[in-house]
Design goal:
With 222 residues, the protein is of the alpha/beta class. It has 9 helices and 6 strands; from the N terminus they run E-H-H-H-H-H-E-H-E-H-E-H-E-E-H. A 6-stranded parallel beta sheet has the order 3-2-1-4-5-6, sandwiched between helices. Helix 4 runs parallel beside helix 6. The protein is globular.
């Protein structure tokens, strides 16, 4: 959706999974281990990337109690993270440094639960780079509702129209766009949707991010 013109960009808000870090292979491995020896088709897993409802679906599909899903998933996730580690998305640290050099505010918004979020950002060496981290537990409604991005703007003290969001998933792009932010779709992760009309710009890697966007924001069509 169109955003209100802003005289200068004030903040950049990053989604975490699929943007700052390519975590979906890790999350998919965790989910596969959870339901083993039964199988979790990739096509089914992909439906829930960037949104909610996965725990309920696992419960209904595999008849695993939801409290067991949550506790066992955490054990398996931290085992995966400790065994494999995780690197920041190529190009992400350089862009974050450029953002800081311009004096812009930064935040992370994610549908991931707080302990997983903190562990992931720390494992990637990124936690100290962000003033604000907003997780799904901080808002009433997750993506595709705009709550996460609106809350991030409020915490940063900026108008949503003066913030640029970097997202990858369909639901995440809808969330940021509905919040009124300028939206860049990054298609660099393992699992990425097609280019979306809700994005004001689509890039295949952080290397394609235009530095001019950190000054004037993303040019708006029309």
């Amino acid at each position: 959706m169109p955003v209100t013109p802003c005289t200068s960009l004030q903040a950049v808000v990053f989604d975490m999974d699929g943007v700052l870090v390519d975590t979906e292979p890790l999350h998919y491995a965790t989910a596969q281990a959870l339901v083993a020896p039964r199988e979790l088709p990739m096509a089914e897993y992909e439906r829930f990337i960037g949104t909610h409802g996965f725990v309920a679906w696992i419960h209904e599909t595999y008849e695993i109690p939801e409290d067991v899903i949550r506790s066992r998933s955490s054990e398996l996730f931290f085992e995966q993270l400790e065994a494999n580690g995780i690197d920041p998305m190529p190009g992400a640290p350089a862009l974050i440094e450029a953002i800081h050099q311009r004096g812009l505010a930064t935040a992370v918004v994610t549908m991931t639960q707080p302990d997983w979020t903190d562990a992931t950002l720390r494992a990637a060496g990124l936690r100290d780079q962000f003033e604000v981290v907003i997780t799904v537990r901080d808002v009433a409604h997750g993506k595709p509702a705009p709550d996460l991005y609106l809350h991030a703007a409020e915490e940063l003290g900026v108008e949503p129209a003066c913030a640029l969001a970097i997202e990858d998933s369909v639901h995440g792009l809808m969330s940021a766009s509905t919040a009124g932010m300028q939206v860049v779709q990054l298609r660099q992760a393992t699992f990425v949707p097609d280019a979306q009309a809700t994005a004001h710009a689509v890039i295949d890697s952080f290397e394609a991010f235009d530095p001019a966007w950190l000054v004037d924001g993303v040019p708006q069509a029309g």
